[in-house]
Structure formats: C-alpha cells, structure tokens
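Same chain as my last thread, 202 residues:
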Amino acid sequence: MDEQGKGFMLLVTGPSGAGKSSLLHWLMEQDARLGFSVSCTTRTPREGEVDGRDYYFVSREEFEERRDADEFVEWAEVHGNYYGTLSSELVRAESEGRIPVLEVDVQGGVNVIKRFGDRVLSVFVFPPSMEVLEDRLRGRGTDDEETIARRLSNARGELDQRNWYRYWLVNDDREQARADLQAIFRAEELRRERWSAPPVSG
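reply #2:
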C-alpha cells in the first residue's frame, strides 16, 4: 500500500475562528506522513505561538523582500497583515517523503488552487453560524473590538469563496468534524489517480 496517496497536498481554510487549526493539528497527530508547511506572516504572535513552528514571524520589510524575490507560492494581505506560503516549505515536506499540509487564509487558498489545480485536496471549514463564529472570536481573548469586527466582516466575503473548494466541512461537533476531515483525507488517498500503479494486475 506504499504507492497510495502520492503527489498531492492538503489545504485547509476557512474564516478566522472556524477552528481549522485545531482540526489540522489533530489530523497531523494521527498521521506522521503529513508535513506542516509553516507560513510567513507579519502579524504579532499570539500567546503560545512559536516562531518557526506556528509561523515565521517577520517584518513587513522582510516579507516584501521575500515576495519580490519570488519565494512564495502564494501570498495575500489579510486583516491588515501579510501571509504567505514559502516554496521552500513545500519542497522540504516533499523531500522528506511527506504530504504537504497548508493552513492558509481563504484568499491565499484560492491562489494555491489556481496554481496547482488537481494536486490540491482543498477543504473549506465552516462555522455552524456567524453567531457562533463571533462567540469563538471573542472567546479567544486575543483581539480588540475593532479586530473582531474586521474579522467578522471579512468572514462574510470569505464565505463567498467557498465554491473554489472541493470539500465543505462544518465544524460544529468536534468529534464529528475530526472524523469528517479524516474521511476526506482517506478518500483522497484512495482516488484512482493517486496510485502510481494498480495494487493488483491480472
């Protein structure tokens, strides 16, 4: 079965507060073949975040220098900060024999899909409702009222991009959402196109 699942990357996105990070981290704990692509950002680290593990935290000047040097597969400005996926991170994961995992914003995810097409297993994570999304953002305790209002406003526009994504997942019940993401990943592995050769030939 070692010929399964070759040549694709897992991309998970959704509005801020939809819960995509916790879902992805759980899935990666279940499967050591997944290799997380650490993104660059100019935003300030949140409590508990570690540079080089959660993000590469850089200045706007450094980000723009890397952007101009064509180091990013995709980049976007979201909530007033830059975010970008480094080409070197995808190369690193693949060189280690892993399936690259991208947790990116909705706009950046669309750019990845446009660039890589069918190589991308794309999943859009929905909150159960906008009211629940607002509760989750407030529950973080990390953003001021202006930031929360901006995230909620942006979320409505991000939801309009949902049709770019192959799979939709509603993160209401945690255990069900985990099971759904795992099922999506496993189904992609078993697609005929992902096999380099038939497992049995007559």
